[in-house]
Amino acid sequence: MPRPPVERGVSTSAAVLPLVSLSPGPVIALVAVVLALGFGLYRAATDGRFRGTRTLPAQSEATEAAAPVADQAADQAATDVGALVRAALPQEALGERATLLQFSSAFCAPCRATRRVLTEVAELVPGVRHVEVDAESQLQLVRDLGVLRTPTTIVLDGSGVERLRAAGAPRREAVLAGLEQIL
Which of 70, 73, 118, 160 has a CA positioned 20 to 30 A from the CA of residue 39? Predict the structure, then answer.
């Protein structure tokens, strides 16, 4: 059987040598770029997406007896959001059907885009009001509601119960679809 042709001047150890002799600097830089790209793709996929804020666990027969007490406590906790907002912002009225509560900060560029989108939706849908809260001046409300970044949009129903929440700038279509769910 004939031997495969061999290129002259190229050894197999020379072809492996560049891979073995990589310094740690470029490897670390490559890993950092891959991690940053992965994080950026994750943020792009999740920013501005509305998520429900209350998930009720499935009840078993053993917990059905305790269900009225648990439901009452959950309802009380849910209505506290509207009470907290009313107490912190007595000059602001909530919408009769829904309230788009936006937490912003002064130097937040996505907050301006979010303000435009939410104002447009509030004008478009009757009974919906947009309320913008300066996160820096309302730190206690930010802490009480668990707002971690700006912009954060919380959708309250007509009774002040938190129904949806989005961190990041939501798209107009996402806001309208979220309102459709709760109205």
Answer: 118
pLDDT digit string (tens) for the chain, length 183 residues: 666 666 665 555 555 555 556 788 888 999 999 999 999 898 888 888 887 764 333 333 443 444 444 444 444 444 467 788 888 988 888 999 999 999 999 999 999 999 999 999 999 999 999 999 999 999 999 999 999 999 999 999 998 999 999 999 999 999 999 999 888
Rounded CA gap, 175 and 110, in Å? 15
The Cα–Cα gap between 122 and 148 comes to: 24
Q: How far apart are CA 64 and CA 85, in angstroms?
A: 32
Homologous superfamily in CATH for domain 80-182? Glutaredoxin (3.40.30.10)
Cβ neighbour number for residue 98 with a 10 Å cutoff = 24
Alpha helices in 104-159 (DSSP H): 109-124, 139-145
State pTM to two decimals: 0.69
Quick check: helix, strand or coil at residue 125? coil
Distances (CA, A) of 69 to 60, 75, 76, 95, 163: 15, 10, 11, 29, 21
